[in-house]
Design brief:
single chain, 309 residues, alpha/beta, TIM Barrel, 8-stranded parallel β-sheet, 12 helices, globular
Length: 309
Amino acid sequence: MTASESSLRRFLHGLPGVDQVGAEQRAAGLGTRSIKTTAKARAIDLAISMVDLTTLEGQDTPGKVRAVSAKAMRPDPADPSCPPAAAVCVYPDMVEVAKQALGSSGVHVASVATAFPSGRAAMDVKLADTRDAVEAGADEVDMVIDRGAFLAGHYLQVFEEIAAIREACAREGGPAHLKVILETGELQTYDNVRRASWLAMMAGGHFIKTSTGKVQPAATLPVTLVMLEAVRDYRDQTGRMIGVKPAGGIRTSKDAIKYLVMVNEITGPDWLDPDWFRFGASTLLNDLLMQRTRLATGRYSGPDYFTLD
């Protein structure tokens, strides 16, 4: 897409405004939907298959990344019917470790990049960060937008940065998928969330993602509702399907199922697939496993039954 500052501003500020009260009420209403036992079991397995199992700490070690990778491949070693997670998400210097540990399992390697989580670095540093992750074997790159530039109204700068990072994701056999982190907790309004969502999609992002998990609030149901409406409307207008990834603060099966209900209601079942919807989480998987065991056996296993992430 050819863009200019004036055309982007005209388009983004011409988007319909978000009814804050309406969005929050609808999100709350969808969160009260009851799910029957059989559907709940399917929803839990689907949620497990959508988890980007994440370890993004300064104390990460190769041993921890290998342990997280093993858990992603076999979340419940005692039950081979349990589906694997979608991906393991790590810093760029741990991509090679995760890639070797995951092998041909089909679990993807995702890497944060572009001076995550602040995004405060020169463009050449962000591009090098991305290329390092892709060259090490990352299947997916989670970049952060420059929130300062976006809030200052420098939309073309943000657009061009996303487009350049997407280009840096190029590799033989097809590009690494690009997830664009909006850091919605810093965007101040739902209107800004909608504008940032459209900007990221128009610039070539494969996914739009709520948060780094390092800023509060992180993922919320109303924010995710606004983003789901954006990807729905974007497909209606362009025919191109974009994924959504809420990340940060989603810790329980009950919470995860609320998001799945919302996906089904807002975008429809096409998005109920790990290719189009993910959860960024480090602790959600254990609760999903506990609830899965309870549904299967009638007994509730405590958190000590499963490995810590």
